[in-house]
From TrEMBL:
Protein name according to UniProt: Hcy-binding domain-containing protein
Species per Swiss-Prot/TrEMBL record: Hibiscus sabdariffa
Binding site for Zn(2+): C275, C342, C343
Keywords: Metal-binding, Methyltransferase, Transferase, Zinc
Domain Hcy-binding: from-to ranges: 36-357
Domain of life: Eukaryota
C-alpha cells in the first residue's frame, strides 16, 4: 500500500513520518490498528485538530452547492478552490483534513451523465487534491513561510488525509441524511452494494484513513463495518454519527448501540459525532465512552439550523458560531481526543480550537 504522505519523508524527515506513517505504509497486517491512531495522537501532543465545515466553506467562497452532488460538484467545476479550502484549514491548525468525497458517489456522477470511469477518477481525484494541499503546506512550513499556530516551528505538524464517505441519505439528498429513515426496502445488502466500489477506490487512493461521516442509523454503521472486513480494507477508518437529541443518533437508534458496532470492528480506530449542535456533544461523548476505549472524535456544526424552505441557516438555542469553542475544554475533559467543526464552521473556528488545545495559557484558564 502506498500512502501519499510517505513520499514526503525524504524531504522532511520529521520523526513522525518514521513512526506512524512507516507503520501505515505497511498496511494493517500485523499491526493493531488502534496503535496507529494512538501513535498519531501522541505525535500531535495528545489531541488532534480536525478540519472544519468543507461544503459550507466552499459556499462562503461563493459556490452555489444547491445540487445533488453538493460539495462534490466543485471537484468538476472548481478543483482549485477545493485545494484552497484544504490549505486554509491546514494553515488554521488542522492535523486531519477530509477529502471532498462526502457526496461524491459513482451513482451521483452517473446521474449527471458521467461515465463510470470518469466518476471513479473524480472520487480518487478528491484525495489527490487533499494530498496536494498537504504537500504545498508542508513545503511552505519547511521554508518557514507560515507560522505554526502552536508548538515548535522546527517540528513538522503531523497531517493525515482522511477520505470522506457520506451516507446513502446524503446521496439521496432527500432529507434522510438527517432522519436516518431509509424505509423498509433498504437492507444491509442495499447499503453495502451502494458503498462498496467507492470504499474500494478510496482505500487505494493514498488516503491515510477513511472517515465515515454523519452516519444516521445502526444499519449503515453495520454495512460499513461489514464492508471493511469483506473487502479487507487496509487503511483505518473512523465512524462518526449525527444526533438531534443528544441521546440517540438521528434515526432514533441508540448512540450506545451504534458506538458498539464501531467498537467491535478492529479496523475502526476512532468513534464520534459530527454535524450535531455543540450543546448536545458533551452528553454524547459520555455515552460513547461507556461502550468504547477507542479515541473519540467530535466535530459539531456551528449550532445553527438549516431551514430547508427558506434555504438558509438560522440561529438556534445554545452557543453558535465561534462561541462554541468555549466548550472544547469540557469536551476534552469528558474524554474526546480529536476536535474539529462541521457545517458552517470556518478556518477561524479551527484556529480557535487549536489555540484552546495547545495554548498553555488557555488550558489553565
Ligand atoms: Zn456537517
Amino acid at each position: 500500500m502506498e500512502t501519499c504522505v510517505f513520499k514526503y519523508r525524504a524531504e522532511t524527515s520529521p520523526p513522525f513520518f518514521f513512526s506512524l506513517l512507516s507503520i501505515l505504509n505497511m498496511g494493517l497486517e500485523g499491526v493493531e490498528p488502534s496503535a496507529l491512531i494512538r501513535g498519531f495522537l501522541a505525535e500531535c501532543g495528545g489531541y488532534a485538530v480536525v478540519d472544519g465545515g468543507f461544503a459550507t466553506e466552499l459556499e462562503r467562497h461563493g459556490q452555489d452547492l444547491n445540487d445533488p452532488l453538493w460539495s462534490a460538484k466543485c471537484l468538476i467545476s472548481s478543483p482549485q478552490l477545493v485545494r484552497r479550502v484544504h490549505l486554509d484549514y491546514l494553515e488554521a491548525g488542522a492535523n486531519v483534513i477530509m477529502s471532498a468525497s462526502y457526496q461524491a458517489t459513482i451513482q451521483g456522477f452517473e446521474a449527471k451523465g458521467l461515465a463510470t470511469e470518469e466518476a471513479e477518477t473524480l472520487i480518487k481525484r478528491s484525495v489527490d487534491i487533499a494530498c496536494e494541499a498537504r504537500q504545498i503546506y508542508l513545503q511552505r512550513c519547511a521554508k518557514g513561510c507560515w507560522d505554526f499556530p502552536h508548538g515548535d516551528k522546527t517540528t513538522q505538524r503531523p497531517v493525515l488525509v482522511a477520505a470522506s464517505v457520506g451516507s446513502y441519505g446524503a446521496y439521496l439528498a432527500d432529507g434522510s441524511e438527517y432522519s436516518g429513515n431509509y424505509g423498509d426496502l433498504v437492507t444491509l445488502e442495499t447499503l453495502k452494494d451502494f458503498h462498496r466500489r467507492r470504499v474500494q477506490i478510496l482505500a487505494s487512493s493514498g488516503a491515510d484513513l477513511i472517515a465515515f461521516e454523519t452516519i444516521p442509523n445502526k444499519l449503515e454503521a453495520k454495512a460499513y463495518a461489514e464492508l471493511l472486513e469483506e473487502e479487507n480494507i487496509n487503511i483505518p477508518a473512523w465512524f462518526s454519527f449525527n444526533s438531534k437529541d443528544g441521546i440517540n443518533v438521528v434515526s432514533g437508534d441508540s448512540i450506545a448501540e451504534c458506538a458498539y458496532i464501531a467498537d467491535s470492528c478492529d479496523r475502526v480506530v476512532a468513534v464520534g459525532i459530527n454535524c450535531t449542535p455543540p450543546r448536545l456533544i458533551h452528553g454524547l461523548i459520555l455515552s460513547i465512552k461507556k461502550v468504547t476505549n477507542k479515541p473519540v472524535v467530535i466535530y459539531p456544526n456551528s449550532g445553527e439550523t438549516y431551514n430547508a424552505e427558506a434555504k438558509q441557516w438560522e440561529k438556534s438555542e445554545g452557543k453558535t458560531g465561534e462561541d462554541f469553542v468555549s466548550y472544547v475544554g469540557k469536551w476534552r475533559d469528558a474524554g474526546a481526543s480529536l476536535f474539529g467543526g462541521c457545517c458552517r464552521t470556518t478556518p477561524n473556528t479551527i484556529r480557535a480550537i487549536s489555540r484552546v488545545l495547545f495554548d498553555k495559557a488557555s488550558l489553565d484558564n
